[in-house]
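Design request, tokens follow.
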């Protein structure tokens, strides 16, 4: 917004705001100075100068200990957002474009890190100057409410106010590290009960789905160390902690290299699929349609 009053703005110096933000983060002038490359006294002077200009106390001082006042807490929330925006605008100038002008691709973290990101070089090389930001989202959110242009989501294909295109039907399998079970060992399905079962907090029904698909009865508790993401579950399985139920498409590389194997046979359908999804309003967006078409082509053989 242009300053229409033609006068100097009542705005503290950037140096003073940086010093205040760092001091409020660490509640310690010395640590704030280390972060900013200043001395403890330099940070203290900047904060005192800021308080004098504003005419308020931003901190209560108890010897070396700092405590934010109510005014300080409120000011911190406001100026941190301003500094973030100023930093982003400055970086946008350096890279020659605004991040908000790039296509916003929403992804679920484990699928992105294990399958999508390693293939994005093919998208980059196949289309003219595609610019995108990849951001994490949850599959149960309303696509129309998210600040994204397109998403790759796992589910049953039911998203309101969106264009939905099926990519891959998900299959899951039980994997183990060679250090836990020798790939040469022949096991009966029932022998899964002898091993620790790694739990996926993001997919709490994974073991129940696999047991049901294999026609195995569920007896007793299914317990074991729990991890919050599928990528962590895969790492845990590779380390030999126990057995894990994982989507086959996320462990292609590990199975090919021998880091993991499937001691209990073929994969089974999970009942869910992956879809490329975008709001109805983006149905004519060339970047979105290019990304959709590339994903459909990339997954054609898997379908």
């Amino acid at each position: 917004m242009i300053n229409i009053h033609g006068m100097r703005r009542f705005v503290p110096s950037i140096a003073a705001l940086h010093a205040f933000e760092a001091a409020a983060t660490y509640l310690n002038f010395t640590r704030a100075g280390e972060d900013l490359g200043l001395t403890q006294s330099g940070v203290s002077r900047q904060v005192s100068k800021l308080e004098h200009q504003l005419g308020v106390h931003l901190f209560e001082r108890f010897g070396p200990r700092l405590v934010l006042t109510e005014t300080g807490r409120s000011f911190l929330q406001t100026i941190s957002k301003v500094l973030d925006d100023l930093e982003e605008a400055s970086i946008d100038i350096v890279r020659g474009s605004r991040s908000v002008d790039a296509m916003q691709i929403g992804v679920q973290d484990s699928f992105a890190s294990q399958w999508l990101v390693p293939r994005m070089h093919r998208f980059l090389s196949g289309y003219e100057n595609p610019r995108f930001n990849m951001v994490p989202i949850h599959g149960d959110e309303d696509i129309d409410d998210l600040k994204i242009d397109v998403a790759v989501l796992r589910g049953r294909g039911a998203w309101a106010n969106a264009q939905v295109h099926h990519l891959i039907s998900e299959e899951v399998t039980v994997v183990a590290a060679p250090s836990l079970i020798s790939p040469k060992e022949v096991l009966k399905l029932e022998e899964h009960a002898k091993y620790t079962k790694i739990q996926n907090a993001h997919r709490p029904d994974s073991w129940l789905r696999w047991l049901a698909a294999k026609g195995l009865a569920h007896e007793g508790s299914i317990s074991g160390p729990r991890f919050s993401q599928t990528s962590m579950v895969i790492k845990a399985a590779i380390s030999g902690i126990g057995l894990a139920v994982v989507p086959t498409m996320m462990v292609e590389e590990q199975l090919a290299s021998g880091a993991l194997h499937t001691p209990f046979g073929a994969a089974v359908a999970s009942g869910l699929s992956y879809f490329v999804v975008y709001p109805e309003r983006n149905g004519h967006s060339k970047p979105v349609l290019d990304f959709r078409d590339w994903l459909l082509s990339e997954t054609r053989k898997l379908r």
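Comment from the thread starter after seeing the answer: thanks! The chain has two domains: 14-95, 102-303.
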